[in-house]
Amino acid sequence: MTLTALSQFNDVKLEMAMRLDLDELPIIWMRDHDEGEVHDDEEDNRRFLAVLQRGEPFVMIAERAPSLPDFAKVDAEERRRRAKLLKDHRRDLARLCRGMILVGRAANLPMPIRKGIEAISSAAGIALLFADSEPAARDLARARLADR
Q1: Cβ-proximal residues to 109 (8 Å cutoff; 6+ apart), any chain
Q2: Total-model pTM
Q3: pLDDT (tens digit, 9 = 90+) per residue, 7-58?
Q4: Which one, of 60, 76, 66, lies nearest residue 32 by Cα?
Q5: How many domains does the chain have?
Q6: In DSSP terms, which residues pair with 103 in a beta bridge?
């Protein structure tokens, strides 16, 4: 990847165009949209804020690590909204979120993506973890929730 590509990449706020799945709360899954699914990001934001307002610990799991094409799916306005959400609720995230788990091998993640995700998790005060499979991620999430 060239320096120009890295510079352009750094302007992207590393948001994944994924939907929230709260069926296993306090484990929050971030899942790919189903083919043809009409998705309401605002509804996901409202649902996520409701989780924060509960004041109870949770863990977030992304069913896969992001890729560069994922970033093209999120327009600049949506990135600004998500960055504001993160900034406005940083303290709650740091206090309540016991970790962000990516399903996949850390070694397979391109370095610019990994560094960007690490920067966001650090800024939010959230531990970044990796698991090789969904069952392993679920076990790790349960362990993180039981630790505190």
Answers
A1: 65, 102, 117
A2: 0.77
A3: 333 333 334 467 889 999 999 999 887 666 666 777 888 888 899 999 999 9
A4: 66
A5: 1
A6: 131
